[in-house]
Amino acid sequence: MKAFDLTTALAAVLLASGCQESASETAKDVAEAQDKAAQNVVTARQDATKKLNEADTDLASAERAYGKAEAGARKELNSAEAVVMVKAAEADFDVASTALEGRYQVAVQKCDALQQVEAKACRSAATMAHATELSVATARRDAALVAAEHHKQ
To answer: Which domain of life is it from (predicted)?
Structure first.
């Protein structure tokens, strides 16, 4: 009977220890998540810059047209400015959501160093923070889109 209890206890210890990453594995995962998040933010910023440059070119064209023909140009200028506002709102949202996704992935990787209940609580907190940040970014984008729509009129 003691051999069974010892075998059961040993199996439980091995099973429990197999579920937790080592500190070096966690550090490696966190570093990889941080690197990936940073790379994603750089790419998102590059995409946003490209979109804004294109929008600025359109705006410059509209401004030139405004100078030549004042009557209909104001409406065209307002429309072009609204397009820039929309593109800026979307670009800002893309950068913000990419950055918050990276922060979330880093937080989840850090949770892997914790034991069962603490790890679950850590992941829940990371998920809640992610959802909150995403809601704020979405609200900012939507407010900017409404402002752009009103600018057209």
So the answer is: Bacteria
**Which residue has 């209890």 as its token pair?**
5
- Name the residue range of residue 103's domain: 25-152
40 near 102, Cβ under 8 Å?
yes
Residue 124 CB contacts under 8 Å (≥ 6 apart), including other chains: none
Token code pair at residue 23: 């500190």
What are 49-73's pLDDT values in tens digits? 999 899 889 888 888 777 777 766 6
Nearest CA-CA partner of 106 in 17, 40, 22, 42:
40
pTM above 0.90, yes or no: no
Domain assignment of residue 44, yes or no: yes
How far apart CA 41 and CA 100 sit, in angstroms, is 9
C-alpha pair distances (Å), 26 with each of 3, 33, 36, 111: 35, 10, 15, 9
How many of the other CB atoms lie within 10 Å of CB of 152? 14
Q: Please give the helix or strand (H or E) that residue 21 lies within, else none.
A: none
Characterise 71 by phi-psi region: left (phi > 0), alpha (psi -120 to 50), beta (else).
Answer: alpha
**Six token digits for residue 69:** 């023909």
Distances from the Cα of 139 to the Cαs of 57, 85, 120, 122, 130, in angstroms?
28, 15, 28, 26, 14
Q: Which helix or strand (DSSP H or E) is residue 114 part of?
A: none
